[in-house]
UniProtKB/TrEMBL annotation:
Family recorded in the similarity comment: Belongs to the peptidase S16 family.
InterPro entries: Lon_proteolytic (IPR008269), Lon_Prtase (IPR027065), PDZ (IPR001478), PDZ_sf (IPR036034), Ribosomal_Su5_D2-typ_SF (IPR020568), Ribsml_uS5_D2-typ_fold_subgr (IPR014721)
The UniProt record lists the keyword Membrane: yes
PROSITE patterns reported for this sequence: LON_PROTEOLYTIC, PDZ
Keyword Transmembrane helix recorded: yes
Alphabetically ordered keywords of this record: Hydrolase, Membrane, Protease, Serine protease, Transmembrane, Transmembrane helix
Protein name: endopeptidase La
Matches recorded under Pfam families: Lon_C, PDZ_2
SMART domains: PDZ
Domain PDZ: 114-200
Ranges annotated as spanning the membrane: 21-42
Domain Lon proteolytic intervals: 243-350
Length: 358
């Protein structure tokens, strides 16, 4: 008996000494899984958010029996855990970092750019909606919007995303083509004085032109867009809750127009989700991650999903959305739209949901 008890104590002792090593091993493994980065971002379904609480139009009405909903994608840097999750989940996918964040661009730059694009999308949505409602809208070019800077070029670490270039060497640059035309008269090594608006203040910077990576022509090294002032006759307040990107343009247009329109409830009692960029002429453009947005809309109980019927890729956003809806067994009706008029025509043709027998 004494020998047996001695053996038991020895075994117990060995086990107690092994516990700390198991704990250390577990901590190391968890640290590896959750803190070791990968060269990927992971994207997955976000949410479907009702727009009426987010948008207020002066003198507008909010008597929708249904709802217009924007849809989002969750995106973040993929640690090893998210990498493994994306390998197993049909509703998550990996994207190489360089396809999400530009060369030399920080996460802060990416966020700033996405919010700037969202702001521009809101203004265009206002313009399109007010024009549809019969109001006069003024659109004036304000300058060249800096939407990114190129690593190793003069603008890097001097200009910021969101800066608006209003003049170069005292010459107005109301749109990107004005900037490009003037710089085409210069040569590598020439210095130019850039006048810009940053956070509402005018500032000046002197930059030395360098050959652009692709064309080798002298330039600043920015990714430009046109900054426009859009003036509508009524006040519009949009609380986008930190959502970035241009893909809510179509749905914001529909919500603003519905608040301006006094004749018909465009929702017809349905939960109408969707996505797509909006252009000043009312055309609807392609977006990324539509498969995730379909899942988000379905989980939120949407009845209808409006999808861009574009020709920019081998497969249109509409076809992607339709395939995803079939894969997850969704009962949503997926509707192709090329313009905001297509969306309005479809919605106006629907019988109110209450007229259907459940």
């Amino acid at each position: 008996m004494s020998e047996e008890r001695l053996i038991t104590r020895n075994r117990s002792g060995r086990g107690s000494h092994s516990i700390p090593w198991l704990f250390v091993l577990a901590v190391v493994l968890l640290g590896t899984v959750f803190f070791v980065p990968t060269p990927y971002y992971v994207t997955r379904p976000g949410s479907a958010i009702e727009l009426a609480p987010m948008i207020d139009v002066e003198g507008g009405k909010k008597d929708e029996s249904g709802a217009f909903m924007l849809t989002t994608v969750r995106m973040g840097e993929a640690n090893l855990a998210w990498y493994l999750y994306a390998q197993l989940s049909p509703n998550a996918e990996l994207m190489k970092k360089e396809l999400v964040v530009g060369s030399g661009e920080s996460n802060e730059d990416f966020t700033r750019r996405e919010l700037a694009v969202m702001d521009n999308s809101q203004k265009i949505a206002e313009a399109v909606a007010f024009r549809l409602a019969g109001y006069d809208v003024k659109i004036e070019n304000q300058g060249v919007w800096v939407m990114g800077t190129i690593e190793g070029m003069p603008a890097k670490n001097v200009l910021q995303i969101g800066d608006v270039i209003v003049a170069v060497d005292g010459r107005p640059t109301r749109e990107a083509k004005d900037l490009l035309q003037y710089l085409s008269t210069k040569k590598q090594g020439d210095q130019v004085e850039v006048t810009l608006i940053r956070d509402g203040r005018e500032e000046k910077r002197t930059l030395t032109l360098a050959p652009l990576p692709d064309s080798k022509t002298p330039g600043l090294g920015i990714r430009p867009d046109n900054k426009q002032e859009i003036i509508v006759p009524k006040q519009v307040s949009i609380s986008s809750q930190g959502i970035g990107g241009p893909s809510a343009g179509l749905m914001m247009t529909l919500e603003i127009y519905d608040q301006l329109n006094q004749e018909i409830d465009l929702t017809r009692g349905y939960k109408v989700a969707g996505t797509g960029t909006i252009s000043p002429d009312g055309s609807v453009g392609r977006i990324g991650g539509i498969n995730h947005k379909v899942v988000a809309a379905d989980e939120a109980g949407a009845d209808i999903f409006l999808a861009p019927d574009d020709a920019e890729g081998p497969v249109s956003n509409y076809q992607e959305a339709l395939e995803t809806a079939k894969r997850i067994g969704s009962r949503m009706r997926v509707v192709p739209v090329k313009t905001v008029d297509d969306a309005l025509a479809f919605l106006k043709a629907q019988k109110p949901k209450s007229s259907y027998s459940e």
